[in-house]
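Input/output pair, single chain:
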Amino acid sequence: MKRRDFLLSTGVASGVLSSPFSFTRVLYAQQPHSSIEWTKPEPSRLFSSVRCDGQSLVAANNGMLLAASCRLGNTADALAIHLQNDRDQGISGPLNAQLSHQLHRSGANPGDDVLCATLKIQNTSNQPQQVELSFVSSAGPSPEVTEQNLYLPLNVAGFTHDKRFASLGMEDFLGDCNVELTKQNLDCHYLEPMASCPGQRKTRALLLVPVVDISSPSRPWRIGLFTESDKPMRFRSTVTDDGNRVWQIGRVATVGPGETIEQSCWLMVHSGDASVAWKAFHQFAHHDPYPPIDWTQEFKVHYYDFLSSAGGEHGVRGDGYDADMKHFRAFHVGMATQHGYYPHLGDFIHPDRKTWLAMQGSEHGPATMSLETMARRIKETQSTGAKAAIYMHLTLFDDASTLFPELQACRRVDPDGKPMRFPWSGPDVQGQCWWMSIASQQWRDHLLEQARWIMEILQPDAICMDETFAGVGYDEAPERTGPISPHAIGFFKEMHSLVRSFGEDKAVFTSDCSRSAFCLWADGDVGDHAYGSSLGNPLYRQEPVRYLAALGNKAWRPCAWHFRHMWEPQMDLARQVGSGVGVSNGWIEYTGLYDLPTKDRDKLIRDIESLL
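Output:
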């Protein structure tokens, strides 16, 4: 290796070492055979521009590659600290700020293709301070501001018109991931808008992950901008008076007395599609403390049982799982999940409750269930070569449970000050369902205790947490007012740790990765998408498929209550993205596996085997 290449690869290009080329005005960080050149004017520690194939991607007039600023957020006339080019640190009032740059290699291009900017903010006072921080970039694939497009990993609520996101602006959500930029401002939010900008409750673009990918129809190079996975963020595109498009990526944070916080933002240059930036996000901006579990990737068929009946739709529920289990091997079932087994939603299991009545709202009568039955099914499922999972729900609670009086204060509260009802009244509901708040410490502790009992008593291979999109929204309870996603992220981190404590091959699956990205803190996703409004909409399968931005390399093994009706779209998507398919019994469709017509059975098995 040449000395210059060695120095660049060991720190000069990232500003870690001082440059040996101090007699030159500019240091070019360029690798052999790479067409990406990063420029750092001496003696600055910050990079100022990037060129691809000899063309600058930063505007010549007052352009900024990846600058930063911060100011006190509770004072209208507070002076901001601006950090860029030859100024990498500053002071304003109680705030000390410092900006650093470091180059990285993603592997998508030869040489360095990712610039990380890290902003450190210290509060030197003895009082907590609210701080507005932002990164600023005018980098773009084209100098023509109206020749720039975005591909955004959007929440599917934009085209499904999911009213459960109404408080975040669902009526105006973008649905198409392809966005043509105009001279108008555009705001994109990761997590609740209010989480990053306290005065902004709604958005037009609700992102699954904090990544925007900018392209031009006339240029081959693209710009990806992304931030850390566990922090809310607003991405704002504006056009300045001098004709530059500027991105501001920021949030409001509270810095404790004497505390120092750090926030990072990455800028990637690439020539692929948006999935290249998504991959880099997982590589640099998301930390998963647990190694992947092999078996979660190895199976392709997920069986979901809603405590079905071997007698079909009009039979008494409870024995459909056993009837279907005899066919698991033939259908290559790799994981089977028990759902509907509980006496009441939210009150799933208790070590002192050996037997109980489940499906108490069924018009055909309740089913008798027990810990012994559930444990036996787990063992027998495992004997077929499949993994066994148990269902939980993140937010639903049936007030017929004897636990309701002590947990009713955990209900989410709407803007009118009323507890929020959850619109579900299926056969597994005896009373009224409520939307519980993951912002409530008591509710989080309850769910973790339920999960611990499930793992201790039943010893399944996995827990499947349903409708995890309920971790995004607002709670208006006086003691919890505000966004709930920070609490949901903390909960899933604890849940992941709890389940892994029972074995390094024990998994947590989330759901609905096209509506929320909590699969980032799990081992995969198993939500149901087998409906015309989601899987049946062409935008759901738009390339690159949006939910892959959240999943990264984790398994997508859906359940599917509409599994026969939506079989062809299921198979098409499984082939398109390498995911799996769901089969089921007990809700919407009632034939399960045991009662399929021979012709249908043979076709399903052939299709499944084409995925293996």
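The longest helix spans residues 441-458. The mean pLDDT is 93.
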